[in-house]
Amino acid sequence: VQLVQSGAELRNPGASVKVSCKASGYTFTSYYIDWVRQAPGQGLEWMGRIDPEDGGTKYAQKFQGRVTFTADTSTSTAYVELSSLRSEDTAVYYCNAWGTNYWGQGTQVTVSS
After folding, report:
1. What is the mean pLDDT of the chain?
2. Are β-strands 9-11 and 107-111 bridged in parallel, bridged antiparallel, or unpaired?
């Protein structure tokens, strides 16, 4: 089983970023995909989850209106898009198959002018 994420991103404040998480080795629709992030010196912060089977989403209130989760079952890939980026969004972003130990390797997103 693998969750492989896209590479590091550098964005200016106000821009958007989209991170991918490609699953292999299991049936993609069997597990929700959670997205969490970890800012420098901080703990893990849950952003929300998507059900790849029907595209249903649940967002943490903090990110409502600024984050979008999608899933492409044809490629077994989940995506998180975060808009209106600010410096506080600088973090490592992770995907996780909910309820399992299947984690992506993390994607560094840096927001800086």
Report:
1. 97
2. parallel
